[in-house]
Design a protein that fits this description.
Helix content is 42%, strand content 14%. The chain is of the alpha/beta class and 661 residues long. It has three domains: 194 residues, no CATH class; 196 residues, Rossmann fold (3-Layer(aba) Sandwich); 229 residues, Urocanase superfamily (Urocanase fold, 3-Layer(aba) Sandwich). The strands form four sheets. Strands 3, 4, 5, 14, 15, 16, 17, 18 and 19 form a nine-stranded mixed β-sheet that branches. Helix 2 packs across helix 3, helix 12 packs across helix 13 and helix 13 crosses helix 14. The chain is globular, with a radius of gyration of 24 Å. The mean pLDDT is 95. GO terms for molecular function: urocanate hydratase activity.
Length: 661
């Protein structure tokens, strides 16, 4: 069968042969056993409902073994034989260009070069899934190949509910992930519902088909690292940045450090991931010996090098070793997946990678004790460094939150509303006041032709527009404009593409609309192929996350999720090609609600109309909420937006004189 025919058949009419478990692939760890016997039977019935009854007798023992061996039913037998990667949009079968674009983005999320655990359909973050099993993937791709532009596909935590009649301006796909009742949103609830096959953790851009490899976070991390050094009035050259994690998101850190120009030490316990990042040239060197690492860092500092060094081991050892040797760390963070601390997101010091994986599945209570013990040591070592002047920031991975729950010394001596912890979230100190409040966030695009020359043309278009905008930009956003022009100019030479021909930059609503409009015109003229627009959920208005995206909201509303819900509803009727809303994000189930979108530009007048309507709302929704919280930058930004658009009228706060109290 051709690739197109395989897509169109969906779940095969005859059972494919079982597939061997490929040990060279990076696999998800075994999930802990959480279902009782009755629930296991229910999980098997839930899995078998995708298949005709004549296959149940053969599949039942196979699925039962998967549940026993891995804690989940992935249906490995149904993994397609074709290569999993984003193909040119013209390669996909179907009646709708918008649907073809979504197929392209789904396959990009599962590309072996992009996905963390591709055979388990997990893109990043240890549990950020595109689908729960391979039957869902096959059925979804079949629906997309059949749909036309007056239908909408409804996705229910990885499960395709089906095609429903709609209209051409409606989203082609509506995605929800993990939207459970709030009282059933604890980590063990996720384990149970996911094992039953009824809910999944979509992370942010995993379950919404908008992940573009680590490039997406490289840009944000580069801005964060640059501004962290600015906060301590130090040139990054020769400065030391210590952190951990080389996974799907955290793997961006060493690359960002290189772009910023500092020395980066990033610890990672998983040798397969470290090897992948080294092969991709996202890290320069791998070290397995602490003494050798220390000497190498000393040499790099003496020579003012720009270099990224991976330590194959636990980051706690690095913090402790550098403290013992009195080696100055300038800035520090952590990006292990602490939203998922008990299932592979964080590995305890003193245990090997293999020992940890075994304990995680067989003795989860002991594993939890070891993780919390490690977090206390981790925080204590960081405290030794910050006492000597290190600037430490939480990178929104729930490090401080989980450390506090473990009893670590991370709480502020004199807490205030929104500043409970000893150290700030990077959003509180950097991304919130410097970027999000002014409407700057992670705008991204994918060239569906798959041609590098198309990406180069879009880079040039975006750079030209930003440079022109900068000439008339107010002083308040000159730094943001300059950083992004520098970024886009270096994007090609930094070889940031992994998977699809994609790019990211931080832009405000005006910048996003102008760049998108120019892309649409270039498509109309035949200069480039169609382009998919999107963003990370980590943005101005898509996400309500009290310890990350909205951590610099101090009016008491940071625990509300109205903004994220408003955002996805507004995007839906303003022209998005697909929309998504998730529980969980990068900080844990029950800790955040986050939404995203995708939009296909095809050179049409319809696309031009939609982009102007939707992109304006997608950003200004968040600025208006931030301005109501009395954020100074957001008040400036929303007043400017109202001057530019007469139909925009936003309620502004009246500031109260503190002296009255």
């Amino acid at each position: 069968m051709t690739f197109q025919e395989q897509i169109q058949q969906g779940i095969p009419a005859e059972l494919p042969q079982p597939k061997p478990y490929e040990t060279q692939i990076n696999h998800a760890p075994k999930r802990k056993e959480i279902l009782n016997d009755q629930e296991k039977k229910l999980a098997l019935k839930n899995a078998l409902r995708y298949f005709e009854p004549k296959f149940h007798a053969e599949l039942l023992p196979e699925f039962k073994k998967e549940l026993e061996d891995y804690g989940r039913i992935y249906m490995y037998r149904f993994r397609p034989d074709y290569e999993m990667k984003a193909r040119p949009i013209s390669d996909y079968p179907g009646k709708s260009e918008q649907a073809k674009a979504i197929m392209l983005m789904i396959q990009n999320n599962l590309d072996y070069a992009v996905a963390q655990h591709p055979h388990e359909l997990i893109t990043y973050g240890g549990n950020g899934a595109v689908f729960q099993n391979w039957a869902q993937y096959l059925l979804t791709m079949k629906y997309l190949s059949e749909m036309h532009d007056e239908q909408t596909l409804v996705m229910y935590s990885g499960h395709p509910m089906g095609l429903f009649p709609s209209h051409k301006d409606a989203p082609r796909v509506v995605v929800t992930n993990g939207m459970v009742i709030p009282n059933y949103s604890k980590p063990d609830d996720w384990e149970k519902f996911n094992a039953l096959g009824v809910s999944q953790y979509g992370q942010m851009t995993a379950g919404s088909y908008m992940y573009i490899g680590p490039q997406g976070i490289v840009h944000g991390t580069t801005i964060t690292v640059l501004n962290a050094f600015r906060k301590i009035n130090k040139n990054p050259k020769g400065g030391l940045f210590v952190t951990s994690g080389l996974g799907g998101m955290s793997g961006a850190q060493p690359k960002a450090g290189n772009i910023a120009g500092c020395i980066t030490v990033c610890a990672e316990v998983n040798p397969k991931i470290a090897k992948i990042r080294h092969e991709q040239k996202w890290i320069d060197e791998i070290h397995e010996n602490l003494d050798q690492l220390f000497e190498r860092v000393k040499k790099a500092k003496e020579n003012n090098e720009t270099v990224s060094l991976a330590f194959l081991g636990n980051v706690v050892e690095v913090w402790e070793k550098f403290a013992e040797e009195n080696l100055k760390i300038d800035i520090g963070s952590d990006q292990t997946s602490l939203h998922n601390p008990w299932a592979g997101g964080y590995y305890p010091v003193g245990q090997s990678f293999e020992e940890s994986n075994k304990m995680m599945a067989e003795n989860p209570e002991l594993f939890k004790e070891k993780v919390q013990e490690s977090l206390r040591k981790h925080a204590a070592a960081i405290n030794r460094h910050t006492a000597k002047g290190t600037y430490f920031f939480d990178y929104g991975n729930a490090f401080l939150l989980e450390a506090s729950r473990a009893g670590a010394d991370v709480m502020a001596e004199n807490p205030t509303l929104g500043r409970e912890f000893k150290y700030p979230s990077y959003v509180q100190d950097i991304m919130g006041p410097m970027c999000f409040d002014y409407g700057f966030g992670p705008f991204r695009w994918v060239c569906t032709s798959g041609k590098p020359e198309d990406l180069k043309k879009t880079d040039d278009i975006a750079c030209e527009i930003l440079e022109e905008m900068k000439k008339n930009s107010p002083a308040e956003i000159q730094q943001q404009m300059a950083d992004n022009i520098q970024w886009i100019k270096g994007a090609q030479e930094n070889k940031l593409v992994v998977g699809s021909q994609a790019r990211i930059l931080y832009a405000d609503a005006e910048g996003r609309m102008k760049i998108a409009e120019a892309f649409n015109m270039a498509i109309k003229k035949g200069e480039i192929g169609p382009v998919v627009l999107g963003r990370d959920h980590h943005d101005v208005s898509g996400t309500d996350s009290p310890y990350r995206e909205t951590s610099n909201i101090y009016d008491g509303s940071r625990f509300t999720a109205d903004m994220a819900i408003h955002n996805v509803i507004g995007d839906s009727f303003r022209g998005a090609t697909w929309v998504s809303i998730h529980n969980g994000g990068g900080v844990g189930w029950g800790e955040v609600i986050n939404g995203g979108f995708g939009m296909l530009l095809d050179g049409s007048e319809d696309a031009d109309r939609r982009l102007k309507s939707m992109l304006f709302w997608d950003v200004n929704n968040g600025i208006s909420r931030r301005s109501w919280a009395r954020n100074e930058g957001a008040i400036f930004a929303i007043k400017r937006a109202m001057e530019a658009e007469p139909n925009l009228k936003v309620t502004l706060p009246n500031l109260v004189d503190e002296g009255l109290f």
